[in-house]
Amino acid sequence: MELPKDPMMLYSLINMKLRDFYPSLDALCSDLNVSKEEIVNNLKAAGFEYSQELNKFW
To answer: Which of 21, 32, 39, 40 could form a disulfide bond with 1, CB atoms 3.0-4.6 angstroms apart?
Structure first.
């Protein structure tokens, strides 16, 4: 899957997928064959952190 380059689009897409389809970020990354490190780093640079407890970036 091609991830959006824009951090706000990435934030929106990942949180929607986590909310509607995946129980964890690990499950999303495994299923979509995307890099967890890339997602976390890109969103961290934009000021977002992943909460495993809430299963979302905020």
So the answer is: 32
What sign does the CA torsion over 42, 46, 51, 57 have?
negative
Model confidence pLDDT, tens digit, residues 20-48: 999 999 999 999 999 999 999 999 999 99
**DSSP secondary structure letter of residue 22:** -
* pTM check: above 0.85: yes
d(CA 2, CA 32): 9
As given in the structure block, the two tokens for residue 32 are: 């979509």
State both tokens at 49: 């952190």
Residue 14, Cα to own-chain centre: how many angstroms? Answer: 4
